[in-house]
Design brief:
By secondary structure, the protein is an alpha/beta fold. It has helices at 2-20, 59-76, 126-139, 183-195, 220-223, 240-251, 268-273, 302-317, 336-352, 380-388, 398-401, 423-427, 431-434, 458-465, 468-477, 485-493, 496-501, and strands at 36-45, 51-54, 81-84, 93-98, 110-114, 118-123, 155-163, 169-175, 200-204, 206-207, 210-211, 256-263, 323-327, 356-360, 373-376, 392-395, 443-450. The protein folds into 2 domains: 22-163, Chitobiase, domain 2 (2-Layer Sandwich); 169-501, TIM Barrel (Alpha-Beta Barrel), CATH 3.20.20. A hairpin with a 2-residue loop joins strand 10 and strand 11. It binds ligand TNX.
Length: 516
């Protein structure tokens, strides 16, 4: 009997040790998939004595060291002091430094070397360090995301990861116009997209149902136009100060915010706020339904262009990023002969403000500015026309990228005008081969839009974005030759515990072998 329990005890111990022992570095499920991973023997252990060191007394590196420490402290309970690299290398350190050595790493790539006594994270630019930090987070056991002290072993298998993105533009769009979302929700979304190395947050700030950004010269846009939302509930808007707070929060995570003011259609909130923007000088009624394509700014009135110059002028002055998004989609009640000169005029305004134009694919019908981006969502013909006119394309095909499309016929949130988009559909496509006439060199990158006609809470947003957003993030970063659905679905399944610990309300798709 004693012998039996001894053996049983040993077997249990063995099983426990197996569960604790880290697999090889290349066996860890990372999203997005790194360009190259080499495994070596041994592993690194983070301990209570570990220090995060940064080179050259560099302030930005110090900030990033602090950022990393803040991510690792709660779950480990370790002090993780952040200090400049000294002469004495302490075993168990994580060191971060900049070096221009490997040009292929570009501005966002990094080299992460994990040895038994230390971790070295090297990049050419701080953005690369930030991306390396996201990888490091995913290399630790998922419990690293816990907000209270855990008794895990904080080990990472040894080896090297050399990594850089396929596309420079990797975006997520949030529609805060149909339903308004508080700053705290936007910040959470920023944190979540940053974990998967996305670097653009496109904010859809105005639509028929609401105007969500303070414009000092046109105050009724928010006091009237921002008052409601879909369904008739109370709306809301960001003051310019709050908008700056979002921008700064994103910038600290190397995410550029792209503000969109949609026009000439999708403008009922503005038309209800100011009668003079309507051709008949009559303000429209506020709108809280979900139809699209019924509104238009009056393209023939000079006041319309004064309005646009004021709005984009104020927004440009508080937007450090290079882009302004002018919308331009679904202007069904604007005649084409009015639409084209309108979009041309708006582009002039944006370019005069020193910003680069982005518009939905319909803007390709106008005369594009040389560095404009056309965002492909529905009409491949438009996107190809944009390319012929010298524009780059942002790939957001609704069939694959729209996070508001339902997963299947049982999904209660979302729409299905572009069909159902299960997790495989959002992952299984290649931006560079999807549309004949658009190839890699014509593409700025990818973006996953989330329209919120049916999304009311952050939990709704998470259910629709996760896990499809991870697939789009993977596409934006991975080298296309490594795309493999059967391999990806295992990688995604292994993210389950992390998603749970991050309290993300994700859709547990049956396509995915979710790990226990
Ligand atoms: C089309 S996508 C729209 C949006 C809607 C969305 C709903 C695009 C440029 N326009 O106005 O919210 O469909 O899926």
């Amino acid at each position: 009997m004693l012998k039996f329990s001894l053996i049983a005890g040993l077997v249990m111990l063995q099983i426990t040790l197996m569960a604790l022992a880290p697999t090889s570095l290349s066996g860890i499920s990372l999203i997005p998939k790194p360009v190259s991973i080499t495994s070596t023997d041994g592993h690194f252990s983070l301990t209570s004595k570990s220090i995060i060191s940064y080179s050259n007394q560099d302030k930005e590196l110090k900030r990033l060291g602090d950022f990393l420490a803040e991510r690792l402290r709660p779950a480990t309970g370790f002090a993780l002091t952040v200090q400049p690299t000294g002469s004495k290398q302490i075993v168990g350190n994580i060191s971060i430094s900049l070096s221009s050595g490997d040009p292929l790493l570009g501005d966002e790539g990094y080299l992460l070397t994990i040895k038994s006594d230390r971790v070295n994270l090297i990049a050419r630019k701080p953005a690369g360090i930030f991306n390396g930090i996201q990888t490091l987070r995913q290399l630790f056991p998922a419990k690293i995301e816990c907000t209270t002290k855990q008794s895990d072993l904080w080990q990472i298998p040894a080896g090297e990861i050399r990594d850089f993105p396929e596309y420079a533009y990797r975006g997520a769009m949030l529609d805060v116009a149909r339903h308004f979302f508080q700053i705290e929700d936007v910040k959470r979304y920023i944190d979540l997209i940053a974990l998967y190395k996305m670097n653009i947050l496109h904010l859809h700030l105005s639509d028929d149902q609401g105007w969500r950004i303070e414009i000092k010269k046109w105050p009724k846009l928010t006091s009237v136009g921002g008052s409601l939302q879909v369904g008739g509930g109370k709306g809301g808007f960001y003051t310019q100060e709050q908008y700056k707070e979002i921008i700064n929060y994103a910038a600290a995570r190397f995410i550029v915010v792209i503000p969109e003011i949609d026009m000439p259609g999708h403008t009922n909130a503005a038309l209800a706020s100011y009668p003079e923007l309507n051709c008949n000088d009559q303000a429209t009624a506020l709108y809280t339904g979900t139809e699209v394509g019924f509104s238009s700014l009056c393209t023939k009135k000079p006041i319309t262009y004064q309005f646009i110059a004021d709005v984009f002028g104020e927004i440009a002055s508080i937007t450090p990023g290079p882009y302004l998004h002018i919308g331009g989609d679904e202007s069904h009640v604007t005649k084409l002969e009015d639409y084209i000169p309108f979009v041309n005029m708006v582009q002039e305004i944006v370019v005069k403000l020193g910003k680069q134009v982005i518009g939905w694919d319909e803007i390709a019908l106008s005369s594009l500015k040389p560095n404009s981006f056309v965002q492909y969502w529905a009409e491949a013909e438009n996107a190809v026309l944009g390319v012929r006119k010298g524009a780059k394309v942002i790939m957001s095909p609704a069939d694959n990228c729209y996070l508001d499309m339902q997963y299947d016929s049982t999904t209660t949130l979302g729409l299905h005008w572009s069909g159902f988009v299960e997790v495989d559909k959002s992952y299984n496509w290649d931006p560079a081969t999807l549309v004949k006439g658009i190839s890699k060199e014509n593409i700025a990158g990818v973006e996953a839009p989330l329209w919120t006609e049916t999304m009311v809470t952050m939990s709704d947003i998470e259910y629709m974005a996760f896990p499809r957003l991870l697939g789009i993030a993977d596409i934006g970063w991975r080298s296309p030759s490594s795309a493999n659905w059967n391999e990806y679905k295992i990688r995604l399944g292994n993210q389950k515990e992390r998603l749970k610990l991050l309290k993300i309300n994700f859709y547990p798709s049956k396509q995915i072998p979710w790990a226990d």
